Input
Amino acid sequence: MNVFIGILGILVVVTEILLSCVKSANNHLLGRQLDSGQIAKEEGNQRHKGFFGNIVGAVFGIALFVFAFSFVIIPTGYTGVRTTFGQVDQTTLQNGFNLKIPFVQSIEKVNNKQQDIVFDKNKISSETSERNAVTFKGITITYQINPDKSAWIYANVADYKDNLVSESLVASAIKTSSKTLTPTDVTNRSILEPRAQENIQKSLDEKYGEGVIKINKVVINGAEFDKAYDEKIAKKQQAQMDYEKQQIENKKEIEKAEADAKVKKTQAQAEADATKIAADAESEANKKVADSITDKLIENKLAEAREKHGWVTVKGADTVVTKEN
Output
């Protein structure tokens, strides 16, 4: 917009100059057609009107041109930093319409939106807590500048757009993070990335002060070990798989043995219960028979036998003898 208004001001001045030239040419032609008295009168009138009109137009054009350099519109998501002859004003300008002294002051816009900085050209080499070599790549840092600190950053950080979150600072923080993690955790992004974010934020706070820059997210797309360690991990994983497979088979065997023992126990219990039931039944039957045999029944049975076989009973002093006739 500023450029457009400046160009418009220049066009107004140029237009007034051209109009002035055209009026002068017309006056010259008109002077050929009129007598000397009329010429002097007409030329005076034309000169007076033309001079006044040209002055007004030129002043308006110059004013328009100067106004074009007298303000800056800061868009949403940005703040402004005003400088006067290179001296930075520590007051941060908010978004919207902001005035400045033309050709004396300038207003620089600082981006306060979330920004991504990608480190994909160089790999970061580090190690785990167990001294295993590991390499990280495809790192993206999402950060945001505190709007209230825009003027401070502009005044104190050289080339802040490229150097605010440096690759060396990020590499140092990621190395610090990986050295606190095991080989298993260092390849787990849900563990590694929050730890790296925490350490990067801590490093920035130590460098610039708290509340200047906020790290919103860290993404690490790749973490690779050396070939020897990969082979070691592969063997360890295979051994673990074999162990787990054997444990499953052992568990199945134990469960089968327990099931078989349970079946046998059940069968034995059933047989014992059946034997006990049979014995109880037999005992009950014998008891009933025994209860049914009385002395009178025995005498009757003996009498029937004597009568049937013709036995004779001889009674002595202490003995009773039965003889068959």
